[in-house]
Amino acid sequence: MMKPSTPPPPSLEDEALIRDYLLHHFIQSVLERDIQILKTLKLKMGELYILNLQLIKKGYSDHAWFLQQQMRRRGIRIHGQSGTAEEGLQVQYLCRGYDGCLLCEWHTFKEEIKDRLVSYLGTDLAAY
Predict the structure, then answer these.
(1) pTM above the 0.90 mark?
(2) Across-strand partners of 68?
């Protein structure tokens, strides 16, 4: 008689994938907000800036799709998130039948967003 196998509990790689997905979601939101703001401004090269941000957004959109596929393959589903100014972003998720919670501190989260955008642009902020 075979013993029923239980799925493994969430791993650090699973949490890293969830964090990566959240970062991409926030980057998409930031880019979309900035595009909308640029559209309202009277800039001489506004279209160029908007196109540049849209190109970045498209690249992140493609990667977000890949992350969603990875999460689906690993049996991860985000089913709630809340944020406070003091603590950060708290995410509730389901991973292979296990309930989990991940807390992302705002200051760390914002730095990671900035670092990813800088690396995507190929810019070195230390040079400035």
Answers:
(1) no
(2) none
